[in-house]
Design a protein that fits this description.
By secondary structure, this protein is mainly α. The protein has 14 helices and no strands.
Length: 237
């Protein structure tokens, strides 16, 4: 089967799972504003991707269709070992909604050896979804164990620099990345993330304050949960 035929087969499978209700709710309910989409639930997109398996060339062909669901599947079937910095930049330039940003970073880009270089490059972008991609990718690397302690310590200044960006999709990703770094097992990272969160929470800038307080709230909740788990169970009478 040619790539064109494979693409058509995947599109046919996706369309079979399309839901008018899901499509109608994408923007109003979930904030996923995109022109070219069919309304396929995430679980069904994952099912289609699983049936395909890893295929770098097919992923590229699916991405070129421009269809939201096809691009989501593309991120799930691409081979991270074959993804180049140029491809990452090209796909990043197409990002037009938070869901595609987060899925591509979560399912693919955080496994690519060039991830931290792209974080550095994208963190200074003015484009809202491009800048979100930098911090979503940083969060995903922290959550999935990619990178060293030094990789994250060196990028805390990027978080601080972006903390005054009040665009909704940027500030939430900046907070996400700080919370993810603060959730690492490294005592040094946890301490540094909490110090930065406290500093931001004292800022005169309202966006930075929101990010700092949001992170501190998450850290306090995680610490309380950990303490509760360590507390010995009461003896039965």
């Amino acid at each position: 089967m040619s790539h064109e035929e494979e693409v058509e087969s995947i599109l046919k499978s996706l369309k079979a799972h399309a839901s008018a209700k899901v499509r109608a709710e994408m923007g109003p309910r979930y904030g996923i504003v995109v022109d070219d989409a069919w309304g396929v639930p995430m679980a069904k997109m994952q099912l289609v991707a699983k049936s395909v398996g890893k295929n770098h060339e097919l992923a590229a062909a699916l991405w070129k269709t421009g269809l939201y669901e096809a691009r989501m599947v593309a991120s799930m079937i691409d081979d991270p070992a074959k993804v180049t910095p140029r491809q990452m930049d090209r796909w990043r330039a197409d990002f037009d909604n938070w869901a595609i940003v987060d899925t591509v970073c979560f399912k693919l880009f955080d496994q690519v050896p060039h991830a931290f270089d792209r974080i550095d490059k994208w963190s200074s972008l003015n484009n809202e979804f491009g800048r979100r991609a930098a911090f979503a990718l940083l969060a995903c690397c922290a959550l999935h164990g990619a990178g060293t302690e030094a990789d994250f310590l060196e990028r805390l200044p990027l978080i601080e620099a972006a903390a005054t960006d009040d665009r909704n999709f940027v500030k939430k990703a900046v907070s996400w990345s700080l919370r993810a770094i603060g959730g690492k097992k490294s005592p040094k990272l946890r301490r540094a993330a909490r110090e930065l969160a406290a500093k931001l929470a004292r800022s005169t800038d309202k966006t930075a304050r929101w990010i700092g307080k949001d992170a501190l709230k998450a850290f306090d909740k995680a610490d309380a949960s950990a303490a509760k788990k360590q507390k010995p169970a009461a003896r039965r009478q």
